[in-house]
């Protein structure tokens, strides 16, 4: 599973990083989230889905 954050949609609510701190981090410059690793670590797929659900902007994009 791959994950990325759509920088045009992200508003920096931090919810994704709270749901899945191993997968998302926030940039110091603009407070927007990014995926630490494009490939979701094995066993963390549910966390990635949870983060996608928790993002109010639908900025977390998952792909298989
Ligand atoms: S929850 Fe969504 S809008 Fe908020 S920081 Fe994460 S990707 Fe950005």
UniProtKB/TrEMBL annotation:
InterPro entries: 3Fe4S_ferredoxin, Fe-S_cluster_ET. Its cofactor is [3Fe-4S] cluster. Signal peptide: none annotated. It holds the Pfam family Fer4_15. Keywords: 3Fe-4S, Electron transport, Iron, Iron-sulfur, Metal-binding, Transport. One of its GO terms (molecular function) is 3 iron, 4 sulfur cluster binding. Transmembrane segments: none annotated. Ferredoxins are iron-sulfur proteins that transfer electrons in a wide variety of metabolic reactions. This is Ferredoxin. The lineage of its organism: Bacteria, Bacillati, Actinomycetota, Actinomycetes, Streptosporangiales.
């Amino acid at each position: 599973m791959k994950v990325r954050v759509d920088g045009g949609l992200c508003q920096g609510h931090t919810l994704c990083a709270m749901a899945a701190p191993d997968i998302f981090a926030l940039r110091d410059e603009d407070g927007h989230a990014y995926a630490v690793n494009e490939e979701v670590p094995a066993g963390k797929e549910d966390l990635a889905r949870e983060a996608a659900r928790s993002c109010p902007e639908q900025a977390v994009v998952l792909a298989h």
